[in-house]
Structure of Putative Mg2 transporter protein CorA family protein:
Amino acid sequence: MIVDCAVYRDGVRLAGDRTPESVAAELATPPPDEPEPGGADHDPAEGERPVPREFAWVGLADPLSSELAQVRRAFDIHPLTIEDALSPRERPKVERIEGTLSMVLRSARYLDAAEEVEFGQITVLLGDDFVVVVRLGDAVNLKGVRRRLETHPERLHYGPAAVLVSILDEVVDAYGPVLDGIENDIDEVETQVFAQGVRPGQPTERLYYLLREVLQTQRATSPVREQVAALMDGDEVPEGAKPYLRDVADHLADVVDRTASARALLSSALEANLTQVSLRQNEDMRKMSAWVSILAVPTMIAGIYGMNFDHMPELDSRFGYPLILGLMASICLMLYRGFRRSGWL
């Protein structure tokens, strides 16, 4: 679905409803010769990519292939770029094909009830005078990004790159609540692992699923660090917009570090839980062996006197029965006390 389609001139949205085709035709028409607003000089420095005075911003959410084909024809985007935007399992990356910069991001939000991370995908297609944003899934909603930028024309004045940086900022900020939820669950499961009276082994499944969510989050966030570094070194983002990109890089570094710490904590907790399971199994085996040894004594003696031979000297003794019972009880008691002292019981 095409969520919004607008043209911006000098950072201000032009009135009227548009389609991708009408936007492309409008951009092909030179704007009227009007003075630049408001005092800031946005002339590009030597070697810097010029900032377009007009650009289009098209937003799509879970689009049909026909809608993306319409956008592709309007802005002359390479088919491979459109194919990547439709694939929900693309790895985060940045690439340029025939003048169009494509940036794939993995959006995320934490579902506390299910203790899992829901992932989506956002693809930003950046041209000289257009930006197309394709969102798959509802992990991060981008409506607020457009509203905030439209209230700050001085940022939109930097063209499509300003939209790219703002979307990056929104996606990276959304990782914060995800990690908050994961870290809260890690605290709970660590308490469960080391709590007295809780049988070890019960948190194993929860630990495994939390570790899986952390690994998926790490795969979504780690590549973005390289992408942001590449944008900082390149000329796709104007110098005036790079301070905002630098702020995104700082937030992203914190996200990557927290994700790595969460992975290390979960791995350690899983190892500790498995160690406790092994120790409890050894303890159970010692107890079973001790009781088997104690019960083996009366079993052996009873087995001997249950062989029913005609000539057994103790069978005719008046005190044979109580003597044998006392002997079995004494030996069992001695074994029990010995196992108790050694910690087996």
